[in-house]
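Supplementary Note 3. Input sequence used for the single-chain structure prediction.
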Amino acid sequence: MKQPTLSALLAACCISLFCHAALAQTTTVTKITSIPFELHWQNEPLKYSVQPGALSILAGPKTDMFRDPNVTYNTDNAPKLLFTP
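The predicted structure, written as discrete structure tokens, is reproduced below.
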């Protein structure tokens, strides 16, 4: 049986990580009447509510959107409600 090459193993790891990231980011569509575009979540929150004039989001523990100026540590797992204008 032939052993997989290093490049084949790296490609498999990259595909696996990409698929995991894509599945972790749900895309539940949400409607807010004052925004005339389709909305979707990137990193869905634990809970949210839409009321006239207000959007409340409850983020989970250890969620953050941080960019280290030295680029040694970045995290971006905070819930975001997005749309394409």
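The mean pLDDT is 77. Residues 6-24 form the longest helix (19 residues).
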